[in-house]
Predict the 3D structure of the following.
Amino acid sequence: MGERMLVQGNEAVGWGALNAGCDGFFGYPITPQNEIPEWFSRELPKRGKVFVQSQSETGAIMMLYGGAAAGFRVMTSTSSPGWGLMQEGMSHLAAAELPCVIVLVQRGGPGQGSVRHAQMDYLCVTRSGGGGGYKNISLAPASVQEIHDLIQLAFYLADKHCNPVVVLSDGILGLIAETLEAKTIDFGPLPEKDWAVRGRDRQRDGKRRFIHSYPSGAPPRGGYANYVSWLEHMGKKYQEMADSELRYETYHSEDAALLLVAYGYVARVCKEAINTARAEGLKVGLLRPITLWPFPYQVIRDKVDLGCRFLVVEDSLGQMVEDVRIAVQGRAEVHFLGLLSRHLPTDGGMILPGRVLEEIRRLS
Amino acid sequence: MGERMLVQGNEAVGWGALNAGCDGFFGYPITPQNEIPEWFSRELPKRGKVFVQSQSETGAIMMLYGGAAAGFRVMTSTSSPGWGLMQEGMSHLAAAELPCVIVLVQRGGPGQGSVRHAQMDYLCVTRSGGGGGYKNISLAPASVQEIHDLIQLAFYLADKHCNPVVVLSDGILGLIAETLEAKTIDFGPLPEKDWAVRGRDRQRDGKRRFIHSYPSGAPPRGGYANYVSWLEHMGKKYQEMADSELRYETYHSEDAALLLVAYGYVARVCKEAINTARAEGLKVGLLRPITLWPFPYQVIRDKVDLGCRFLVVEDSLGQMVEDVRIAVQGRAEVHFLGLLSRHLPTDGGMILPGRVLEEIRRLS
Amino acid sequence: MGERMLVQGNEAVGWGALNAGCDGFFGYPITPQNEIPEWFSRELPKRGKVFVQSQSETGAIMMLYGGAAAGFRVMTSTSSPGWGLMQEGMSHLAAAELPCVIVLVQRGGPGQGSVRHAQMDYLCVTRSGGGGGYKNISLAPASVQEIHDLIQLAFYLADKHCNPVVVLSDGILGLIAETLEAKTIDFGPLPEKDWAVRGRDRQRDGKRRFIHSYPSGAPPRGGYANYVSWLEHMGKKYQEMADSELRYETYHSEDAALLLVAYGYVARVCKEAINTARAEGLKVGLLRPITLWPFPYQVIRDKVDLGCRFLVVEDSLGQMVEDVRIAVQGRAEVHFLGLLSRHLPTDGGMILPGRVLEEIRRLS
Amino acid sequence: MGERMLVQGNEAVGWGALNAGCDGFFGYPITPQNEIPEWFSRELPKRGKVFVQSQSETGAIMMLYGGAAAGFRVMTSTSSPGWGLMQEGMSHLAAAELPCVIVLVQRGGPGQGSVRHAQMDYLCVTRSGGGGGYKNISLAPASVQEIHDLIQLAFYLADKHCNPVVVLSDGILGLIAETLEAKTIDFGPLPEKDWAVRGRDRQRDGKRRFIHSYPSGAPPRGGYANYVSWLEHMGKKYQEMADSELRYETYHSEDAALLLVAYGYVARVCKEAINTARAEGLKVGLLRPITLWPFPYQVIRDKVDLGCRFLVVEDSLGQMVEDVRIAVQGRAEVHFLGLLSRHLPTDGGMILPGRVLEEIRRLS
């Protein structure tokens, strides 16, 4: 059994990483995720692990390149403007097939935007913001415990698929405090990182290795004849990731006539609204994607076949709603309640249970 | 009448910018777009305009911030890895509502990828790769002449909407040479840039101005009470851009039973295949989006209603095909011919007319 | 005849550069020299010349490398902490034998120090702060007019010797306003820059050229067999610079029993004190080095032979006094009045005429 | 008794640092000192200490700022071009009075110069290359054992005086292998670092501390009324360092009529020449400064009084010879044998015993 403690979501990132055997953290401060690097700066060195505050986010993401290439479990965290600075590195990490974990604690954008909570980086996270068409599994926790658990899963999936994995948090999840049971989760065995660059003397076969993306030299993982055959391999890998790693939660969805779709902190707001609505007899439920990529398109399509209508709730101008529309294919109503759907002029744009409930009633 | 000359696509960027009254170019070298900064370095200074080779792509994009804030028509160009480095800046430019033009000559990705032609940055260009949910009009030329003309349109639309505009070229369009008639296009009047920072003495009203995104101070364009009201303004502006700036070309589409959807150099390959197919009596046509954002969803839906089937051809693993599927909503077949749909093992992944024709025949 | 105007010392840098035919300025802001980049940003572009605010001082100094290598007259300016950042570049410029001008407006150090006036960079300017034993002529103006004139001389000497030249100003000279007669000074003919990199097509002999320091390839200026023979050439050039470019001013020095040695703004303070002292019948004079490197060692030695005693006055803890001691060789008294030699606890360390006069009286 | 082993000079840096209780190393690769960061990257992490390869030399030197401010024993190493990049940081470290150690393995300059051995950074090391008139003790080892011992002394002196200390090695000392007896040397007690920034909770008095140079806020070490009073403190500290830390070695100097002055590897070459010369009956000896700053001026002056003549031998165009001339004050002959004083056209400029002996014979 693990240790029970009361911690903030940002701190749960640290406990999750520790329980995943994270070897090193590299990052640069930005609100609202500063508790994450602060935690690692305090806890990693005394355990013989590495914490480095880099000169910039561009530096941090490239330090992941180096650490992951050497076979270590490494990670970084940032918020939205810093995420923009990491896009070139994300594309390089994907190209070099380097397993690592990036925690993105979303804040309001675009640009410097606001340090408030938001869900405005969904599209660039799920659509290869750095360019070149790579894919990365994106995990969206909705509680402190789940942050802890999904960080561990993220390291596992990164190693399993040799690919960067993003954990998409937000400014509210990062700062709320909840009880956490911190223990290591066993996701099963992983292949040895025999591709890692460890220095010739520590390499089992005594051969030097180089890690880089095609086509600067020999392929990192074995023989691709040319760029297109490498892309074939990449495309196949992305398809395997899409096919095998889908995760989602449903809540009162079995008989729901109206299905809310929400992730992260907003999903919890929706649950509260659903509880009240159910007490009022309204047939409403929730689909909460845990993986944003891959996205539960088929789950939604099955609900369309059952006659469901949909309400997407997001702390943005509308991003995940695009994926719901792709799934629904125009065969059911898709409503949207977003950052601008204010209940009161003074509520600052936060998605509150009362406002969701009001919308549920209006649509039921 | 304009000057007629034989130029490469990358050079046509320069002539278009010059005819648009471009005041300054800031960039960093990367294949396959080096002819663009080379052109500007040679042609701008002797006309009393500014060329700067910045220290990096992060520097170049922020120089656009400065130049645009001062009211000048400024631009940069890059290729895919450099585009990754510009993502933070893109989000800042959008947030500060600064008009400027970014030319992206796509090469193969992800990461360093290949210096070959490709169309693998479609998703991040149309889905706010830098995060925060901004939108930017994306123009996709398919000839040297159109590069020249769309560069001018890009400057016009940037000024009209106070927003960065992306011109999405590729490694083939950039290097082919065609006849160009270079002349200035009049798109109509534009409002004065009374918001520009010109130094207090040159400001008409003698007041200092500051350009920045909400919420670091007073709003750049006038009174937003708070972050949410600023986002309301931004959301409304993005909607106006989506509603008013759609551009596309159709080719033999009136009676087409099979409609190809392609952009950029691939659209020209498709036209050649269509010519042959039409000669064979096959009812096939082309929809070529000129704006990738906004995307011609409704145009496609109208074709769905007429019973069309679709073949998306892209030099990628499949990116624009997502938008076609969004449009089609599952009500018609959507086929995909991409980078891996090789005719011969040795063709290097280029989309050739013969391969497209073969697919047309198979689907007809 | 030139134009007469009332300008600050920092502005006189600009007029001097303009009259020297300066083609480009590259710099980064820092107090107390911000008027210099401001001037260039306003005046250069409208004359078809180049102004770039670089990302940093390390960027600015390397832009000089590029501009000078292409055969242009280029310059930068900075203050003390920025000068620290330029040291690697200074050493590279010297090694590549690239003519350019660096204006250093000294402020109080070390580190961030104070934005006040000071003369605390003498040693690193005259002792190759960037390492490797290069030499650079260092010119120390003492008036607005002389700033203007020495900037022109700096460009001439840089071209004559193919070497960077430093103009050492300070926070007082930079900010005082005096009448300036701005006109071009003719220092005589200079050899053509046939070594410059101009692009193969614009090179007279149609050959490509490369500019770099030994030993990365072919020598920039012609055949050095190896590193040592290149150093022989460099050592000989430094000796020629030392032998031919000494400049200094004397004031009431003919019959002086006490010779003040001072440069920059402090030399003017000393002149005022000398005027009063002479009125009191005291035999006191001034030696003002205009070149700090080469330094007027022999001029001082000749005064030693005549029985002179010396008072060095510097706005520092004592730097140039080292050179005076080298010259005097222990054969005469060398007194020092520096930044800590305060007259009143409240005078902030400025060297004032009253304090110098007091010291003159004490020593006479 | 310590451990005996055969190691290179660059490795001896590591063992010395380890025996001094070094907590962290931050650096960037450059020939001929790459064995130093390689050693630390291998040895520090497994001992729970910190190694970071920074993005650049400017980053490395500022990481020393952070580590030293937190009270840790931290160091970096570099070679000549990297030393140029560290000059701004050196000045900041001195201003903030932060104890740390910088190892400079000299190579040929200026600029990129040559990766060969050289002694061409003497002047900028001893004359505050970063500007602002700070002083740093500079230690010059001449053997692998002494490298090890002086690294330890460097940490001690840095802590004792709250000042950066430079250890000046060269490309020959760094690469030769000799027997090393590695043990910790006890230099005596040091005051507690009660000024260090440790986080409020770990601070004994529970107060926050800030480390910075005057005048950005409260002084780091206690009450300076203003900039001048802070400089008074700094000037006094530099004088104390100069007065108390002089170190040098003499060899056959008692009855020497000709005294060689040399440091580093060249001093060993001189000893060999002296041995031969003594066997020939020539009265020749050696003064080897171990501290280059402070410099043994008085030791030389005492020899002048005894009628000595001097021969300075340096692997440069002449740098330390300036200090010898300052000491001698024109009262004795000072000869110079430098990098260009070649015996054979083919010897590459290395100072060899035969060439020194020849000069000794010529001067005896």
